[in-house]
Amino acid sequence: MKSRIAVLASVLLLGACAQLPDPSESAVMNLFVVTPQAPDMRYQIEIAKLTDLANHQNQLDDASMAQLLYRRGSLYDALGLSGLARIDLNRALERDPRLADAYNFLGIQYTEIEQYNYAYEMFDSALELEPEHPYALLNRGMTAYYDGRIDLASKDYQRYFESQPDDPYRVLWLYLAEVETDAEAARRNLAERRIKYANGAWGWVLNDLLLGVVDEQSFLNDYAPKHLGEDETLAERMCESYFYLGKLKQLEGDNQAAAVYFRLALTTNVYRFLEHRYAGIELQRSQQALEQQASSTKLDAQE
């Protein structure tokens, strides 16, 4: 730990002067592909039981039916059945318009399909009903981030970070917003927060990756696939790892490697992780950047 803190101190001094690695040396050429996560049989059994209960809906009041539909919708979502999930979540709100969790889930789903106006409405409704909702603030920040409204994303991420500053993912997403407006200051802030708040949580290694304290190859060999949590699968760990490696390569301007990592994140089938949810958007944007680069190169050659 002391050696990594020393490197972080150096990062603070070096700031934006750090050299970016050569894309041709990317560890993407040597990585392994994790086996996709299989659909959880427990979720499928629970869906069957909930469906049987729903078929006897006359025995349930509106509040109970709303909770049943919300639960089944969340299970459909975890299995990647987003269309069925949205149907149940909307039906849950018809039964109970004050179900904040359903609004939050719908907001996530609308963000995934880039229907940002609907997503804002959902998260605002969730926060109006439950101002201290544990996830709606983060998720609204995600919507603003992918909608290109970085100022709004930074505000939501900042509030979310301040409520639990030792959460490495809150630090990470605040950095990803800040780097869009001032890369040098964002890097300095990330290093300072890393030194001040870090604990033994796995997610801090992701912050070290983006800082350059841990290099890409060492991350893949020595950190990503090892020391899994008691209830953590390798697919879950690698879903996160692939996604943030993709973000790292984006920041380095290597959109080709970024696209590979985002594809790998999608192949894990960890549908309930935000890293899987938004890997599709990231992949599309990396591919668009590659197309723009190719078009620009072609124009330069013609001149």
From TrEMBL:
NCBIfam families membership: PRK11189.1
Keywords: Cell membrane, Lipoprotein, Membrane, Palmitate, Repeat, Signal, TPR repeat
Signal peptide span: 1-18
Predominant localisation class: membrane
Function: May be involved in cell division.
Gene field: nlpI
Name of this protein: Lipoprotein NlpI
Subunit structure and binding partners: Homodimer.
InterPro entries in UniProt: Lipoprotein_NlpI, TPR-like_helical_dom_sf, TPR_rpt, Ycf3
Subcellular location: Cell membrane
TPR repeats: 100-133
Entry keyword annotation includes Zinc: no
Pfam families found in the cross-reference section: TPR_8
